[in-house]
Amino acid sequence: LARPTNFDHHWLPFTNNRMFRETPQMFAKAEGVRYLTPEGDTVLDGSSGLFCTPAGHGRREIADAVHAQLMTLDYTPHFQRAAPVSFELAERLAGLLPEGLDRVFFASSGSEAVDSAMKICLTYHRAKGEGQRTRFVSRNWGYHGVNLGGTSLAGMVNNRREFSGVTCDVVHMRQTWSEEQRYTQGQPETGAELADDLEEICRTYGADTIAGVFVEPIAGSIGTVVPPKGYLERLRAIADRYGLLLIFDEVITGFGRTGAAFASQAFGVTPDIVTMAKALTNGAIPMSAVATTAAIQDTVFAAAGDQDRPELFHGYTYSAHPVACAAALATLDIYRDEKLFERAAALSPAFLDMIFGLRNLPQVSDLRGYGMLAGIQLAPADKPGAKGSLAQRALFDAGLHVKATGDALIVAPAFVSGEDDLEQMGDILRRVLGRADLS
Ligand code: PMP
Q1: Whose CA is nearest to atom 9 of ligand 1?
Q2: What is the ipTM for the molecules in this complex?
Q3: What is d(CA 51, CA 100) in angstroms, rounded to the nearest whole number?
Q4: Cα 11 to averaged position of ligand 1 atoms, centre (Å)
Q5: In 10 A of CB 161, how many CB atoms?
Q6: Are the C-beta atoms of residues 368 and 377 closer than 8 Å to each other?
Q7: Which of 148, 187, 110 lies closest to 373 in space, CA to CA?
Q8: Rounded to whole angstroms, what are the CA distances from 102 to 44, 51, 136, 383?
Q9: Where are the coiled-coil regions (predicted)?
Q10: From CA 191, how far away is CA 128, in angstroms rounded?
Q11: Are 400 and 411 a contacting pair, CB within 8 Å?
């Protein structure tokens, strides 16, 4: 486990590379719910990596499936060719998704899934003779990846501003968090009316210019903002009224994070399109997917007009990569055999109790949580975002990895975590966030 000494050549994303070189944080090994640093220190994984590893790290079953697939069929082009495993995986996913969402397109990252979903929306409307529907709606503080489509949808202004000359036309709605919801465990009772922003946008911009509305069912990257009761239902009704497609970006919430396979099932609202990634392969191999209905797929197919033309000029070299498909199938087997979505639901009350027990600590200004996903809002410092990075570093030094986003921490343990792991997580959080000063 050697620490490299030359940090010049690898350009890291979302990182101030100069600062990183001075104080690098690294993991060299992982097993179960723990990472090991190059120095041999153990760090408890409080964020499933980056919401990727509900089944824990180093799963032998996935490694074996990957190896077997590599030696059987390591690669097949996805254009005019396919591998048997991709059909098997699509069928398995159709069985997990809400009824009706049973047509699956594969890509390699959440960002690719989001851009694919945008193109499906645009092609769908064009096929219906509504090609003028080219605008999208998303939410303030939403995150939908960093390809140009996702950058356009980005509700974090910093992620979008510098690219404003080349981004797509997106109108942003308000986020659902409000002061009166502070310290709400589960779904807030108030705030459903914020969905009416969508109706307002339809009136202001003309509903017939809008292709679709993208939301994360639980807004992840702002630090876990849970939809108020009735909010998603209202979005669904408005989308139906105005002929917009509703897209749930389940890149974080998919595969059990809410205690159900998908958040759309937990909240009882079915979108037209779902995007997923991360936990699809338990983080082991990059893979993502977009699921939609047969009716939408049929309409998109009709856009081709004649037999020689593709329905949709879209697809990636690594779409439905056989090795990724094999990793995903092995992952879904683990989720099923170990009943991990049920386990997430069963573990959630103890997890959320631990999180909400942090309520009176000096560094904490709000707590939010649902299922196995929680947000800890930190009492802000003078400079926005500074507290988040200080806290995540102090927690890392104390032996806990969690994702910081602005001045919030996102906690998302693996579903294989034991109660003792959650206790240890609580101990470290209490110790560090209980300090009057984090610097
Ligand atoms: N959508 C959501 C909701 C996400 O949280 C993320 C990644 N955190 C993405 C899209 C982008 O996924 P990726 O980084 O795999 O491109």
Answers
A1: 145
A2: 0.99
A3: 26
A4: 19
A5: 11
A6: yes
A7: 187
A8: 37, 24, 24, 46
A9: none
A10: 34
A11: no
Of 400, 371, 147, 352, the closest CA to residue 267 belongs to 371
Query: Which residue carries 């590599």 as its tokens?
Result: 70
Q: Which of 408, 371, 379 is nearest to 187 (CA)?
A: 371
Whether 62 and 282 have beta carbons less than 8 Å apart is answered as yes
Q: How far apart are CA 100 and CA 270, in angstroms?
A: 9
Domains of the chain (ranges; CATH) run 17-55+339-433 (3.90.1150.10), 63-337 (3.40.640.10)
Residue 262 is given by DSSP the state S
Tell me which residue has its CA closest to atom 7 in ligand 1: 145
Name the β-bridge partners of 57: 32
- pLDDT tens by residue, 330-380: 999 999 999 999 999 999 999 999 999 999 999 999 999 999 999 999 998
Q: What is the pLDDT of residues 41-78, one digit of tens each?
A: 999 999 999 999 999 999 999 999 999 999 999 999 98
Q: What is the pLDDT of residues 130-165, one digit of tens each?
A: 999 999 999 999 999 999 999 999 999 988 999 999
The CA distance from 154 to 158, in Å, is 9
The tokens describing 289, both together, are 């997917």
Residue ranges around ligand 1 (CB below 6 Å): 109-111, 114, 143-145, 216, 220-221, 249, 251-252, 277
Question: Global pTM?
Answer: 0.97
Instruction: Scan for tokens 């989308």, then name that residue.
Output: 239
Q: Which two tokens stand for residue 422?
A: 């959650």
Residue 249's alpha-carbon distances to 118, 291, 391, in angstroms, are 11, 11, 28
Beta strands in 2-100 (DSSP E): 29-31, 34-36, 42-45
Tokens coding 316: 């990636």
Kindly tell me the sign of the dihedral angle through the C-alpha atoms of 350, 354, 355, 359: positive
- Report which ligand 1 atom has the smallest distance to the Cα of 250: 3
Question: What gap in Å lies between CA 102 and CA 94, rounded to an integer?
Answer: 4
Helix axes 84-96, 322-337, angle to 10 degrees: 40
d(CA 109, CA 363): 34
Helix locations, 357-381, DSSP H: none
For the CA of 112, the closest atom of ligand 1 is 16
